Amino acid sequence: MKGLMLKVGVLLLGFFSVVGYANTNSGLSLADYARPVQFIDIKISPQGDYLAATSRDDEGVIRLTVLDVQSRAVLSVTQLRGNESVSAFHWVTSNRLLMTTAREIGALEQPIATGELIAMDADGSRRVILTGPRSRDGNFVFAELVDILPNHNGEVLISQFSMRETQPFLDLYRMRVDSGRKRSEGRIPVRSYRGSQVQLLTDQTGTVRLARGVSTENPNLVVMLYRANARAPWVKISEVDELEGGFIPLAFTHDGNEVVGLSANTTDTFSIARYNFETNEETLMLAHPQVDVEPLFSFRQGRPSEVIGASFELEEIEHVFFADGTQEGEAESLLRVFATFPKQQAHIHSATADNQLQILTVQSANESRQFYLFNRESNELELLAQSRPWLQGVELPHTKTIRYTARDGTDILALLTLPNNVKSGDIPLVVIPHGGPLGMRDSMGIINLEAKLLADHGYAVLQPNFRGSSGFGLAFERAGLQQWGRRIIADIADGVTHLANEKLIDPDRVCISGASFGGYAAVMSAIEYPELYQCAIGFSGFYDLELMFTSGDLPQSDFGMAYLRRVLGTDTAALRAQSPKHQAQRLTRPVMLVHGGRDMRAPIEHLHHFKAELERHELPYSELIKETEGHGFYKPENNVERWQRMLDFLAEHIGEKVD
């Protein structure tokens, strides 16, 4: 077996400057932590001639750069006009790129997807707007790429829906990427709800044969439709409760007679299974008894093709492959590559048409995302870019997985980040519950810079995967339903108790801080467990559960209302018993409230309602409001201010130990 050669390239690493350091353990400043990702995406062209990369400069402007692979010469740099930016891109021919765009709208800081598709050549020429009101047809539609159709040079398959309707159908078109001329490929008989998406899956010929989306009759149900070919009628093959898992299609087999997907029909966790359309039967391929698995794809013709393996995360990230026939060589080479990055999340991200050159992404809770060019023939692996190059060589606090037992005996996995070179037992703790709570978890596969920042300033950080978190099976996730202020925050509290019993932290210096649902959990935890927490910080939090049914983007659709009824319940007494607004009089710990004035998920009325109750009961609080921010802060300078205020608040309440 040939050995793997790793080298560091100079393709992109020298494009931008790195800002200076400050007086923290790592030498990083708050501005360093707040800097958005610099290298966003890198993809290789089908013939391997060009690399395209989106990157953000020191002013925050996003550019699309195309380089020659051999000479590393820059062929073009594209920056859209005014308040527009490139949000994603795809190679659709050997020389032509398709871009999707985002635009800053009104006073909102974070750009919003426009649904426009723009194409251009690698050298930046022949740029044309293909869809949307500025295109040749002028239609007010939202378009997305479905398939690059590698065997139809110059054509792609797109979906689009009318932005003038609240529950539109999806229409399919084959579109020329030089002119935007389209011809209809039919309509998908599943509506696109606000807050939900229709998943479309093409076979090896580029024909959409599977569609999966929310039922038009019952927004709690997910339907999957199938057709044998482009002329065959659509047939419903499944209809399941969204919280019962079901089958999520991933990729057709090469012969098109079966589809491989994630399934929870026969297992509590999501496994990888193969579904046969003739027999309507599933065959289990890979399952883990405790955690969900995630697919690993092979690439054919420059696009994800077949599922050849999976990754899963318990205490660590692991990769396994199940390959046969033509897949064996690819699985063997990937095993060697992934062994170079133990305990990290690795994926093939882009590949040439012959699959000999691949762009790999590698990341973990302790490493920002990195892009590598892998040459399968020479077995060379070249580092192209790091998403945050200013972190290169910096010794950040280390994050690891821990396990603890909740009060009822349930095992809980959590991430723990400790300061470098600090004695255990005397460390103040900040607990960070994640958002969601459904559909989210804290993972060793992605870095959390806020956890690193806090540990860099001397705090231990606990990120518990409480009940309701995804990734640990359906029963574990369902156990969080209608338990926001009960079982979930009890699981969080049990994590604090565990660290105290293990003498890893100072139990008299504990604060809890979170965003979105995590902001709710932080404030509600301080109300329910004042003996554990000395303070709480809520960021973009929900503080009035009844208000969630009437304000914000969720109640604007049947899908969103159904979600709220399932997740929160409809019993008024229970909602009020679990709402910080209605329990404010019980709060005995200081709170800091941070919010964006344009938040559509948790509108600022949540803060105003809770603040009014705090003032009515003459309870102290501090606040930070940014009127032009949404659900979370987008501007780096706003996050710097938020973190500085947060560090001051923590220092005041759990900082220096008083003997």
Automatic annotation (TrEMBL):
Domain Peptidase S9 prolyl oligopeptidase catalytic: 449-656
GO biological process: proteolysis
Record keywords, A-Z: Hydrolase
Pfam family, one: Peptidase_S9
Molecular function, one GO term: serine-type endopeptidase activity
KW Transport (keyword) present: no
Nucleotide-binding is among the record's keywords: no
Signal peptide: none
UniProt name for this protein: S9 family peptidase
